[in-house]
């Protein structure tokens, strides 16, 4: 499969996907990295891996739909068949999401359906949960609510702060995302209603 990765920042999950795709037996390759923010570290990572990358600044477009249309054009021009959102900090229009539904993954830093949205680690600490983690799910028009492929849990320690907890979760993200991409690329994901079934 040819994968397009959408990023906005640090790109550590992009790096995990690039590293996984570099293995000879991995069923996917990163065909294009797109950032909506110029100058971010994720673009350097794509460059270092020799992967095509471009910036599509959302500010250059009059509407969300116009920006998403350009994303769509760029992905199709690169022959992309699976899209991975990896720290991509823009909401996508329902038209774009529908066009890629079943072929678009997101990684979210909580055990969904707990803590959708932003500031997940702070909110997990405030809620006093003993388990936290990450989720890789298919993207549907409902934010952070699509069928779940993989979750990984980590303990919350009494002396955790946001940064320590985030680091523990991030380590799991870097394992979970390539595993989920492999499942999707190998056609081992079937969706029925809100659930994903893996074979
Ligand atoms: C990760 O925690 C991811 O789960 C969330 O945004 C963060 C991106 O980090 N969606 P990175 O850019 O992959 O390093």
From TrEMBL:
It comes from the Bacteria. It holds the Pfam family Formyl_trans_N. Belongs to the GART family. The gene is purN. Catalyzes the transfer of a formyl group from 10-formyltetrahydrofolate to 5-phospho-ribosyl-glycinamide (GAR), producing 5-phospho-ribosyl-N-formylglycinamide (FGAR) and tetrahydrofolate. Pathway: Purine metabolism; IMP biosynthesis via de novo pathway; N(2)-formyl-N(1)-(5-phospho-D-ribosyl)glycinamide from N(1)-(5-phospho-D-ribosyl)glycinamide (10-formyl THF route): step 1/1. This is Phosphoribosylglycinamide formyltransferase. The keyword Transmembrane helix does not apply.
